[in-house]
Fold:
Amino acid sequence: MEEQFSKEIIMDALAGVMAPGATIDLVSDGSIRKVATCDGYVTVDVAMPKDAAQRDALERAITQKLHEAAKTSGAAIKQLKVMFVTEPENPSPQPPPRGSGSEDTSAMLPGVKRIIAVGAGKGGVGKSTISVNLAVALARQGHSVGILDADIYGPSLPTLLGLDGLEPTMHDNRLQVFYVHGVKAMTIGKLVDPEKPLIWRGPMAHGAFKQLAEQTDWGELDYLIIDLPPGTGDVPLTMAQMLKMTGAVVVCTPQKVARDDAIRAVRMFQQLKIDVLGIVENMSVFVGDDGKEYDIFGRGGAELMAQRLGLPFLGAVPLTMSLRQHSDAGTPLKNFAKSDATKPALENMAKQIEMQADLAQGRVGAQGPKLVVN
Structure:
């Protein structure tokens, strides 16, 4: 039976590695910030050396030492990532309170003023479509906007933003954003084989989200929109533990089965002490090319749910042929053409969310849950 490559084995191995010019090893001097290991997938966060030119040599030394340790212990390393981080050695356990002012920024993402998560209780309700069009609508209003595709199980941004012809780049060990349609974007869909199934356990999901959020060079942002995976799993918990959130938007269709799952998403955000900014009803009605409307899923169900939960209703977005076409083509700006039937609904939705974000910014939330990965 194959041995597990444990945290203890990794730390013992790293105790034999010293940075160039150092007098004590990485473990003793506190340079190892975090170690995560699960089923042969290993991530090691190391404090950024003072001399950036030493990174490559240090990464080679760590990689060599860990592979030697794995071979000696009879374990296997399927994937090893050595990440150089710049956070302080002894970070404060209490982040600054949420809602301390409009110019406040996320402690983990300096320069980002507001972070809004877009979630859903189930897949297939158009959460990613809403995320993309919200980001574009806010950018059209003059805001600096980023969008993070945190749906690490099924990333949709490469298609919705038309990223197929673009390749990811790194500068100073940081991922460079894709600047498209007036929005800064990052997605794991451009960092892995597009046809490879993304099978993540808890620590791996935690590490993937952490890398995407923290090691992307976002610059200065008024808004960062986070497109979450559907459901109530690991990624929202990691997000709540890592980032100072402005609030969350829950997307659902009018039908009861979608509303039932959306309520669970609302309760999840509330349990994580994240303000729920409100509910968006997507695919509220189908509008045919002839302008005739069809209530395929039963219009108004999400609005009634929002009223019952005491939450703001952020608007109803119709399903149109043009919205589907522009989504498949990766041309979201075309949804805001004067003649497009979805333009008023999308602009109203963005206006309502911005208003609720203003209100949430003035409320001080409680400390989110702590997540420890061993």
Remarks:
- Residues 112-361 form a domain with the Rossmann fold fold (CATH 3.40.50.300).
- Residues 55-73 form the longest helix (19 residues).
- The mean pLDDT is 81.
